[in-house]
Amino acid sequence: MKFKLLATSLAVTLALSGCMSNNAQTSNTANATVASASVENKVFAQDYVLEELENGLRVMVVKTDYPDVVSLQIPVSVGSRNEIEAGKTGFAHFFEHMMFKGSEKFPQDVYADILKNSGVDNRAYTTNDYTNYHLNFSKEHLDKVLEIKADIFQNLKYSEEQFRTEALTVKGEYLKNNASPIRKLLAAVRKEAFEKHTYKHTTMGFFEDIEAMPDQMAYGQTFFERFYKPEYVSLVIVGDVDPQETMNMVKKHWGNWKKGDYQADIPVEPKQQAPKYVHEQFEGMPGHWLLVSYKGTAWQPTKKDRAALDLISQLYFSSNSELYQELVVDKQLASQMFTYNAETKDPGLLHVFVKVEKEEDLAAVRDAIAKTYAKARTELVDADKLAALKSNLKYSFINGLDSSQAIASTLASYMHFERDPEVINQLYASADAITAEDIRDIANKYFVDNGRTTVTMSALETVSGFDKEVSVSALAKQANQPVERHFKVLDKTNSSPLVDVNLLFYTGAAADPVGKKGVAALTAAMIARGGSQTKSYKEIQKALYPIAGSFGYQLDKEMISLRGRVHKDNAEQWYALVSDQLLNPGFREDDFKRLKKELIDGIKAGLKSSNDEELGKEVLYHKLYEGHPYESYNLGDLSDLEALTLDDVKAFYAAQFTQAKLNVGITGDLDNDVKTQMLNDLASLPKGDEARLSIPDAPKLAGRHATIVEKNAKSTAVSFGFPIDTIRSSKDWTALWLVRSYFGEHRSSNSFLYQRIRQVRGMNYGDYAYIEYFPRGMFQTKPDSNLGRSEQIFQVWLRPLRSNNDAHFATRVALFELDKLIKDGMTEADFNATRNFLSNFVPQLVASQDRQLGYALDSEFYNTESFVEYVRKQLASLTVEDVNRVIRENLQTDDVHYVFITGDGKDMQKRLAKETVSPLKYNSDKPAALINEDKQIESYKLNIPAKNIEVLDIDKVFK
Question: Which domain of life, per UniProt (predicted)?
Fold first, then answer.
């Protein structure tokens, strides 16, 4: 493989080549572009005529002074990238073959004879993004060549026998290519590196698809009709021609070709979440190959990234690089080393190939490559060396452009992108502006561990000593940041202009000391909403306002999340403000009093007075965890809050906001200098010893209990549940999560409880079930991230009922249905429907950038794969038998705690203790089956012993 030099070199070549004509050509057509520019202003300064015909065909004519010879290039914007249908890979390449079969007017033997007698060199090739047909001949044959190719492109004809025979030829070509270790490596790395994008397969396609090609004649016709249309095609004609006469010939033969309307929907490749590695066995192959590939950039000629990546390849991995001298010349660990960076419309791969003779040297060579990429991320390349490289690439390229054919083929390789040769000038302008700082910044952007895929290949089944891969990011940090850090970083930086930062500390309300319940909440509030030592909170808010920057907090039992968002353009200003809040809190007495008052008011006026639904759920948690670190409400107990001092807050901050507990999450296009500064600054936090809180098992719940909270309420809210051992990292969590969804998916009308209580009976607004803590449920439809807990409960939430009688009946319905679920399990149909729903629904939980970051941090907490992949993988392997086993092992109704929020506590107590019948009345006729079921349910036993029923006045709750 030969490294393709910078596209900008082409531009210089065209500008400086002495055989070019300097006379602008003219065209009478309104759609024609006549280009004439000075060498000083444009690197591609050759005069040309570019015209788009009414049918969408683009035609470019360049007159040169090379006598007699003409090169016709026909790039078609279809390659393996466009093969989006499963089982249909390889057709772009296959049709490169079929386009030589001829037409009715010019059958293969007829046109081949004409071209042979005319001395026409007729060839083609296929790439990721385009297929190019190229012909070279004397200028006297131009009209006939255009006529023949136009007829074949418009009226391709072949028999089934020709189709099937050519399919066998393609299979033979695949087998031939498969004998090449380089091609095998490229096929292996693409298959491993890409999940959804069609770059997953090479231009040859997958072998199983090639084997099926003989029977795909109907699809072959479809493929041809889709892509062999004028809007996909360009004609590049370079040589000893008259541009206007040539344009007239093109219009005569190609002008009546009908335009199509098909556009392939190319799948977008998701951001790679982790480095990948695969070993490819090649029996009988001597030595070992190593391929290290990184995700690169899409075709963006006005940006610096593409040119910079090619420069990095040359600077660090070419035969003139220090690494080449070390590995190949000095230490002789490798016998070959080269790079290959294909230019692709969508983000592709950047490759470094190394041939190693000894197995034990593979890991050493791999690590040397990693250290070199880390060097690119941290050092500034010598400016003179960079300038010399640019010059060398330009003039090396110029030396290769010594014919009309060379010029035409180079133009064809760029015309397929935007069908405009001016991209060459754009590329050169971008490349010429690249500085040493750009090289370093772009290296940091692309050469990250999560963008890497590594392939080894040898005759061995596996490679030993290859399991401890060096992290490029870690090496770069060591080189660039001597600061010792003791926190974790989840770096998901990307091209998004929105930057999200999540500083997640593994501490929270469960760390509140006895008698100081609420100090975690007050400390978090003081950091996020209390100002810094240099600025008051009011000053910070005023500074954040024009840049629309945010910074807030979320508190739970084991997590405090300090999170913010800002546009990348304002990231430095934003960070300067919020970092001071965390690292140098103001801890002012007036802020302390204000925020403590807000927390107390939040409990009194917000939760206890006006939010019966959340109150019931929080009382349930309080009762299930009495004597446990989870016992208190997250915001604290009122009496403790009243007694807290500013010194208590300072002590909690010093003890809990440590590096050991910190997990930094970053996403968006955060400037590398700002990121580096932030990580260095965070290393100034106390080191700490405890990485996360030690949480004991939940107290054992024995029997059925009820807590009735009496307050001024017009309706009755119900919650009940019990502790469970299954948390997100448990093997049965996804199965239990599926059961929860079926039984009571939050705010979903499809869930079973919703149908039985609200939909059929019209009793309330909704009825839901949970296996993870879900606060603020009345305000949102999807759960928040960063509520990770070591202990969870199974909970049913019945939204407020019209009366105690209805609440009693609805609770009986829920228990009745839960008992049936435990006894009978789920049906196959319900299981499949729920699994299908969740498989399709789960991406919605991480639909925004900040949610993706939050869930990724949660996956770190639970030590699981990324949430969507984790859930989908487990869902795919579940059976209804698995789920019903999980139901039996996790759900029960013998040990349950009920909470009722009501205006008449004594009445509710009496109903529960005496198992009072709770008949339900309707305002319309109902089916007999429902009425009969109601008769059974209205006296269904909750079996709560009178001694286990407690009535609490609202004033005593969270006191």
Answer: Bacteria
d(Cα 8, Cα 397) in Å, to the nearest integer?
9
- Reported as a single tens digit per residue, the pLDDT across 558-572 is 999 999 999 999 999
pLDDT tens for 626-637 read: 999 999 999 999
Q: CB–CB of 957/614 below 8 Å?
A: no
Q: Are 130 and 79 in contact (CB under 8 A)?
A: yes
Q: Tell me how far CA of residue 461 lies from CA of 44, 572, 780, in angstroms.
A: 51, 50, 52
Helix (H) or strand (E) run with residue 553 in it: strand 550-555
Q: Where are the alpha helices (DSSP H) in 300-382?
A: 305-317, 322-324, 362-378
Question: Is residue 240 within 8 Å of 63, Cβ to Cβ?
Answer: yes
Find the helix or strand (DSSP H, E) in which 448 lies.
none
- pLDDT computed for residue 12 by the predictor: 27
Statement: residue 88 has pLDDT above 60: yes
Task: Give the residue with greater pLDDT, 315 vs 478.
Answer: 315
Distance from C-alpha of 510 to C-alpha of 557, rounded to nearest angstrom? 5
**pTM for this prediction:** 0.55
Output b/e per residue, 105-122; b: 16+ Cβ within 10 A: ebeeeebbebbeebebeb
Nearest-CA neighbor of 428 among 153, 743, 16, 873?
Answer: 16
Span 178-223, pLDDT tens digits: 778 999 999 999 999 999 999 999 999 999 999 999 999 999 899 9
Name the residue with tokens 């190719």. 149
Rounded Cα distance, 197 and 347, in Å: 10
Average pLDDT (803-817) is 97
Beta 58-63 vs 234-239: how paired, if at all?
Answer: parallel
* Mean of pLDDT values over 402-406: 82
What's the confidence (pLDDT) of residue 18?
Answer: 25
SS3 for 755? helix
Backbone angles phi, psi at 123, to 5 degrees: -145, 180
* Radius of gyration over every alpha carbon of the chain, rounded to an integer in angstroms: 35
Compute the distance between CA of residue 896 and CA of residue 915 in angstroms, rounded to an integer. 16
Q: Work out the number of other CB atoms within 10 angstroms of the CB of residue 913.
A: 16
Model pLDDT, residue 505: 98
Task: Note the maximum CA span of the chain.
Answer: 109
Tokens of 91: 């057709």
- Domains and their CATH numbers in the chain: 7-254 (3.30.830.10), 276-382+427-479 (3.30.830.10), 488-682 (3.30.830.10), 704-918+944-956 (3.30.830.10)
Please work out, in degrees rounded to the nearest 5, the angle formed at the alpha carbon of residue 600 by the alpha carbons of 594 and 604: 140
Residues 6+ apart with CB under 8 A from 890: 724, 725, 726, 732, 736, 739, 794
Secondary structure in 3-state letters for 820-835 = HHHHHCCCHHHHHHHH
